[in-house]
Amino acid sequence: MTTSSSSDGFYAELTNAEGGALRYAVNGAWRASSSDATVESVNPSRANARANAFQACTRAEVDEAFAGARAAQGPWARTPLHERASLLHRAATLMRENAGGMVSALMIEVAKGAKESATEVERSADLIDYTAEEGVRILGRGDLLMSDSFPGNDRNKICMASNVPVGVVLCIPPFNYPVNLCVSKVAPALIAGNAVVVKPPTQGCTATLHMIHCFIKAGFPPGLIQAVTGRGGEIGDYLTTHPLVNAISFTGGETGIRVAQKAGMVALQTELGGKDACIVLPDADLELAAKSIVKGGFSYSGQRCTAVKIVAVFEEVADELIGKVNERIAKLSVGLPEDDATITAVVSKSSADFIQSLVVDAESKGATLCQEWKREDNLIWPLLIDNVTHDMKICWEEPFGPVLPVVRVKNENEALELVNKSRFGLQGCVFTRDIDRAIRLSDAMQTGTVQINGPPARGPDHFPFQGVKDSGIGSQGITNSIKVMTKVKSTVINLAKPSYTIA
Ligand SMILES: NC(=O)C1=CN([C@@H]2O[C@H](COP(=O)(O)OP(=O)(O)OC[C@H]3O[C@@H](n4cnc5c(N)ncnc54)[C@H](OP(=O)(O)O)[C@@H]3O)[C@@H](O)[C@H]2O)C=CC1
Ligand SMILES: O=C(O)[C@H](O)COP(=O)(O)O
Q: Where in the sequence is the signal peptide annotated (predicted)?
């Protein structure tokens, strides 16, 4: 893996001559905004000191980006599928060759540990390769239907249905996977013959722009991949309600609900928050459950939509399970991303303040803190909170941090109540050796996915991934994303006379 930053070699075009704010991408070039204004990212591990700056794009620049994308999309849709796939493979190669800039940007801007940052980039390159291959497989074929299978019809109509691009896809990823959750939108859109306009998250923007640069350098036509920067709160509504948008793929928090409410007649894919529950039954392998709870609850400091966000353990095994979880928590490394700590600073001061408020509320209502509460700036030490009850905010809110509530339950109904009363429904997991019981519980859980004897996870990236209720609309995963970014086109041949094959 090579190391590089925005100002040297491969990524030099992103930076102004003076080494100022990173540029935004329009029509194949990196440009400074006419606004003369910038937005800044911070370094969560260094008391939120300035990390980098980006162009605050104007509305006219957003218009230009959409117009350029629209102009580029038609010729791209007419580019042979195998050529589209080749360019995606080239982008994946460039990402692997120039991973260093993205990895260090992830550590600085979103405080992701060194190994996980490297994994995010590698996983993203793999995702692009798989998308290219899957696109070739599924977009190269369609359906052929004969009219005589429906009552009242003879065989005189033949319907050919294929998947065609939607047009321009607006891609808005969140801070916690600014590379992976961006390629998971961009790559399916491109293979399907669409153009994309990307709005990177402000925290994580550097890594997203580096990733976009790999696509541009791979030789995609100018305009096909645009990246407009600026605070979501300022340009977000203008982007999501833009008349040239045909589909929106959004991952993030509450904002996504507002995006969905405002979006017009466009295809929508939203992946939002989660309150993933881990149900531990009395017959479970408690060692496995404890390991999965700690991995699921605390990796990347709990800042994953699929983090375990609440444990529902049967009373008879609660003490033993909690003992095992606490032993493992004691071994978690806390510190800097560069040192590859598991627990690193959470993304912002406001996030740390919110997490603290949930802990204070729970403690004031009688919950038991299994570790000492400890915080320095954005860095919060891992904390398990036992004896949580339904009146505590942490029972229902998503902390997005390294604190994990435990509710002791008497039976399956109490466990299911916790899962199904939540306004979220992303994933959940069940630990038991009884597969019949696991399946029964899985069927009763109102979530997009249930993991049996393993922690919640989005990956592998070709698995279907979806939320219900406030956790989102539509399904992700490579195959499903390609489908969301296409629409079905039917061509019907009307024969003058019915025709049947004769054996
Ligand atoms: N289900 C899932 O797959 C995932 C869910 N999440 C959820 O996301 C949350 C944390 O991520 P976070 O990045 O803070 O989420 P946000 O919803 O705050 O931001 C997500 C993205 O939306 C942008 N944005 C902000 N305002 C608007 C707007 N009005 N219109 C359009 N876009 C806008 C942000 O830009 P800017 O940064 O400039 O504000 C960012 O790029 C958690 O709740 C978590 O559960 C996170 C990852 C995955
Ligand atoms: O956005 C998230 O947090 C992810 O979708 C979680 O992905 P993971 O389960 O692969 O960490």
A: none
